[in-house]
Amino acid sequence: MLVKRIVALLVAVGGALVTCSTAIADALDDGHGAASQQGGNFGQPSGTAGAHTSGVGTLPFTGFNLAIIAAVALVLLAGGTAFETAGATHPEEGYNWEEHRYAYLIDTSKCIGCGSCVRACRAENDVPDGFVRTWIERYVVGPEGSHVDSPKGGIDGFPPVQTSFTATKSFFVPKMCNHCKETPCIQVCPVGASYRTKDGLVLVDGERCIGCAYCVQACPYGSRFINPSTHTADKCTWCYHRITKGLKPACVEVCPTGTRQFGDMKREDDPVRKAIEGDRVAILQPHLLTEPQCYYLHLDKEVR
Question: Where are the domains of the chain?
């Protein structure tokens, strides 16, 4: 099985490199004259910009190029087994993640936009200035228009706002990583740094992450960023270091109105499980089929 996967990856990556080299060759042909005048192209000396395989326009399969293909394939193979590697060690001694499956519930009718959750998240997780792992959006809506803002993620609350239309309702909506079951961020990661735990969270392995930002672009909820200090992908973890010790996420702990709730779907008596199974809950962008594990009560139709 392992040999078959390696061979398949070699073929796939080899084909991709051939396609890529063809495109580069075509570009070199088109820009040969201009490149020569400017003293070379792609770092080559003047007069060698078109020095590729003539006629075919692809890189020859020399030992060097095959070595590159093999190296890329092994990286992709390592990425494909990231879950197995990441799951080899439990996060906390005595914690059995087979016994849990977590979910998050937000009641938008209770949120007052105070920003306590954002501040608690920053303090708990050392979130760098200018970035947030969780944030609050303000919606001001009327028959003739709508206004949506999130100044600094709502960390300092929300100042009064004037609109050019008559507002008939306004509300706040907290947002974060949705820890999707079918998450695109895991699918696009070339090295397997993004993975899903057995208890239902999507996390990032900082040792594997190369900071390519593919996952940042792929996330449809805008919940990821590249940490300027670590140069790796960063996001909400539902305070995994806390919940594996039996504590609540910091944002849930400090919420003064009970807007944010965190629960375990494997506990029959869990209030969050009962609400998700018994109430009319909603998820963000259901048409994407990502199966978010962050659920909302009283979610307005204007929210995306």
Answer: 2-80, 97-304
What does the pLDDT profile of the chain (304 residues) look like in tens digits? 444 334 333 333 344 333 334 433 343 344 333 333 333 322 333 333 333 333 333 334 344 444 433 443 444 444 444 443 344 345 667 899 999 999 999 999 999 999 999 999 999 999 999 999 999 999 999 999 999 999 999 999 999 999 999 999 999 999 999 999 999 999 999 999 999 999 999 999 999 999 999 999 999 999 999 999 999 999 999 999 999 999 999 999 999 999 999 999 999 999 999 999 999 999 999 999 999 999 999 999 889 8
- CATH code of the region 97-304: 3.30.70.20
pTM for the full predicted model: 0.71
Beta strand ranges found along 89-226 (DSSP E) = 102-107, 135-142, 145-149, 169-175, 194-196, 202-204, 225-226
d(CA 64, CA 25): 18
Name the DSSP class of 282.
B
Instruction: Measure Cα distances from 290 to 123, 198, 285, 286 in Å.
Output: 30, 17, 9, 7
Q: With CA atoms as reference, report the closest residue to 259 among 251, 267, 247, 269.
A: 251
Q: How far apart are CA 159 and CA 207, in angstroms?
A: 40
Which of 107, 77, 66 lies closest to 9, judged by CA?
77
